[in-house]
Amino acid sequence: MKKLLLFIIPALMLTGCFPKYEAIRRASILDYTEFTSKGFFVTESNSVSFDYDAIGSVIGENYGGYEVLYKKDQMGDDTYSRLTEIKVKYGKYLPAKADVALREMILKAMEKGANGVINVRINGSSRFTAGADTTYYGYIATGMAIRKK
Question: Per-residue pLDDT tens for 66-90?
Answer without folding.
Answer: 888 877 766 566 566 666 666 778 8
